[in-house]
Amino acid sequence: MNEVPPPGKRAAARDGADREFSGEDFGRHRLPRGLTLRALVPNAITSAALCSGLTGIRFAIGGDFHSAVLAVMLAGVLDGIDGRVARLMKAQSRFGAELDSLSDAIAFGVGPALILYLWSLSSVPRYGWFAALALAVCCALRLARFNASIDLPGQPHKSAGFMTGVPAPVGAALAFLPLYLWFASGLEEFRQPIVVGPWALLIAFLMISNLPTLGWGALRPRRAIRLEVIALSGMITVALLTEPWLTLVGICALYLALMPVGVWRYRRIRLQRANANPLKPEQA
């Protein structure tokens, strides 16, 4: 038989239920009521990046690989904007950070993997699927590592202006290099799985590697050459409008050529820190 609680306990139970549904966790913790109005804008941009990456898969299924690559590139542009908009509007949130990581995993991991599979790797489905799967999984692993270390104070790469491994949007752009070459030349050699598969595996490894890669902090130009940088940016924009695929090939080649430079510069910074603080070399 169920016992009927006395009036005092019944009132307390009603109060607890009211607190639960009003945003409190049984009177112990207040639950978030929702996103602020300022947070809607950057999170809407992140959602648009996610939708753009998924739309690239839809274009690839229909055989329109030009539009598929452009959709993923648009996702990369939106991904580069949302964080800066959030900082400008002072709307950073844990929800936005988690949504951004999930969006990146799909737009720059799953999307490029399926596009490459439908374009080339499906002709050898057993081995081709392995290469596509490695690209998607390594992208997710990279983002999980980033989320796990986002609150850690001691990150030597980040403190020196470098990133650990190839970022997810850059990895997606590099993974499409055989596609750029195929678009620009029309040669079927660039579409062969023997070329696309190992290249996808290499990019997957670079994304989860511990190599220090150049970030915005390390690429910041000196004041003396900033006018030249502005002029170069305009020329690159014109080149992208006139010869987009060859320009993207050149950008990818330049990024790959700068990777040893990033390793060398980071090693030099480590030595400088070790010499400045010889008692604590592990923090260098």
Number of strands: 4
Radius of gyration, whole Å:
24 Å
State the order of secondary-structure elements, H for helix, E for strand. Answer: HEEHHHHHEHHHEHH
Give the N-terminus to C-terminus distance in angstroms. 69 Å
Order of neighbouring strands in the sheet with most strands: 1-2
How is the main sheet built? 2 strands, antiparallel
Number of helices: 11
Shape verdict: globular
In helices, the fraction of residues equals over 70%
Low-pLDDT regions: 9-31
Overall pLDDT metric: 82
What percent of residues are in strands?
under 5%
> What's the CATH architecture name of the domain at 38-156 and 166-211?
Up-down Bundle
What's the short version?
Helices cover 71% and strands 4% of the residues. The protein contains 11 helices and 4 strands; from the N terminus they run H-E-E-H-H-H-H-H-E-H-H-H-E-H-H.
Characterise this structure:
The protein has 284 residues and is mostly helical. It has a domain of 165 residues: CDP-alcohol phosphotransferase transmembrane (TM) domain (Four Helix Bundle (Hemerythrin (Met), subunit A)), CATH 1.20.120.1760. It has eleven helices and four strands; from the N terminus they run αββαααααβαααβαα. It has a two-stranded antiparallel ribbon with strand order 1-2. The N and C termini lie far apart (69 Å).
